[in-house]
Amino acid sequence: MKIAILSDSHSKVALTKEAIDFLKKCGAQYLVHAGDFGCEETLQLLQDSQLPYVCVFGNNDYNLVEVAHKYNIHKEPYNFKIKDNTFTLMHMPYYMSSQADIVLFGHTHIFEHEYKNKTLFLNPGEICAREKPLSECVLLEINENEYIINYYSKSIDSNEYERKEVKYEK
Fold it and tell me: pTM for the full model?
């Protein structure tokens, strides 16, 4: 199973679309966004992706509350399940002790990963390239005995993503 994970788009619609299209070509079957969309156009991209998706409000998404009924947006922390895997999704990394298999978060704009006490903690970094000149996203592959994190980043001046792979045994 492969899950596209994004966060912190901050109204960078073109970069968000590039990342979604790229991750779909890499085989993404699901799409998760950890908040700070910035605008409704980003939410529309999630909806138009043709992938099952889930997302949470970020601290900069107050302007999107009135359109939440049109999209699959939840308040954080949001717990859900895909197949046999349990997830906790949040924007702000405040609920980091979890009984979930996987905790996904954003806000810091920094790609982070840790496997601790049988829980994978993962922040995909930033789509918006605000804190650094990189647009970042993750394709998480979940297999029976391992997690494979494919971290992708591209310079805003480039059309090519670079990949870094991290594996954890379950």
Answer: 0.96
Q: Nearest CA to 55 among 70, 84, 118?
A: 70
89 and 120 Cβ atoms separated by less than 8 Å: no
User: CB neighbours of 14 closer than 8 A, spacing ≥ 6?
Assistant: none
> Any idea what the Cα angle at residue 162 is, between residues 47 and 157, rounded to 5°?
80
Of 40, 71, 77, the C-alpha closest to 54 is 71
What's the mean per-residue pLDDT of the chain? 95
Starting at the earlier edge strand, list the strands of the sheet with 134-142: 73-74, 53-56, 30-33, 2-6, 134-142, 146-155, 162-169
What pLDDT sits at residue 98? 72
Give CA–CA dist 77/88, Å, rounded.
6
Q: Is 155 exposed, middle or buried (0-12, 13-18, 19+ CB in 10 A)?
A: middle
Q: What are phi and psi of 94, to 5 degrees?
A: -105, -15
**3-class secondary structure per residue, 60-103:** CCHHHHHHHHHCCEECCCEEEEECCEEEEECCCCCCCCCCCCEE
